[in-house]
UniProtKB/TrEMBL annotation:
Keyword Coiled coil: no
Residues making up the signal peptide according to the UniProt record: none
Name the record gives this protein: Serine/threonine-protein kinase RsbW
UniProt xrefs under Pfam families: HATPase_c_2
Length: 128
């Protein structure tokens, strides 16, 4: 799935996840975690990666096997240093209105992997 960097396109992602969940009869726990983590990743790609520039694309790919479901989200941005993120649970960061997305993704998915550049993230969920 390829779409422009506009917040309204998150609806497309939500519909895709709903369709996948119904087709593969995903457990509601997996569905909830998957929805939150993937939507957060797509939102990050749109807002932080592509800086809401609607001429830039976000690419969303997925693969499902009997053991895992994985999504790969790629933006056209310059990337970021995913190894150096502030801890949103520290007192000095609790009042900030941003900075929790990757923290959430890490806690919801079984695996989260970034490419070296930091403009692509893979979120993996175990189905067994």
């Amino acid at each position: 799935m390829v779409f422009k960097s506009e917040i309204k396109n998150i609806n497309l992602v939500e519909r895709l996840i709903d369709d996948i969940s119904a087709k593969y009869q995903l457990h509601s726990d997996i569905y909830g975690k998957l929805l939150l983590a993937v939507v957060e990743g797509v939102n990050n790609a749109i807002v932080h990666g592509n800086k809401l520039e609607s001429d830039k694309d976000v690419v969303l790919q997925y693969e499902i096997t009997d053991k895992i479901i994985q999504f790969v989200i790629t933006d056209n941005g310059s990337g970021f240093n995913y190894k150096d993120l502030p801890d949103p649970t520290k007192p000095e960061n609790l009042e900030k209105t941003h900075g929790r997305g990757i923290f959430l993704m890490n806690h919801l998915a079984d695996e989260v992997e970034f490419n070296e550049k930091g403009n692509e993230v893979k979120v993996i969920f175990n189905l067994s």
